[in-house]
Amino acid sequence: MSTIETYKQEIEKELDLALEKLVELKTKIRSLSDVERLDFIKDVESLETMANEMMDRVKEINVEMENSWEQIKGDVDSSLIKINEGFERLNRSLV
């Protein structure tokens, strides 16, 4: 299996995990008061947007040429770090 394909599979697993975490966060947020919920909804929406953008970038890996995938890999890795940091920050706030 090529390096690109292996990387893509790893990122798809991470994205699946991120989507599961989004569902968990939404469930936690539903139990908050309206005022508290409003404080968190922007962050959750931001994480959703980042995850969707990441999915689009992963799809691009399929159509990009072999020599340009390193740029996409860097963008995806950076997005994944931001998403995970966002989850950590929100989870700390909800505890």
Account of the protein in words:
This protein is mainly alpha-helical and 95 residues long. The chain contains 3 helices and no strands. Helix 2 packs antiparallel against helix 3 (69-94). The mean pLDDT is 83.
Per-chain topology:
Layout (H helix, E strand, L loop, with lengths): L2 H28 L3 H30 L5 H26 L1
Main attributes of the structure:
single chain, 95 residues, mainly alpha, 3 helices, 0% strand
Helix content: over 70%
How many helical stretches?
A: 3
Mind summarizing the main beta sheet? Answer: none
* Strand runs, count: 0
Shape verdict:
elongated
Strand content: under 5%
Mean pLDDT: 83
Please mark out the parts with pLDDT under 50 across 5 or more consecutive residues, or reply none.
none
What letter string, H or E per element, gives the SSE order? HHH
Radius of gyration: 15 Å
SS-based class: mainly alpha
Q: In whole angstroms, how far apart are the ends?
A: 42 Å
Care to give the gist of this entry?
With 95 residues, the protein is mostly helical. The chain contains three helices and no strands. Helix content is 88%, strand content 0%.
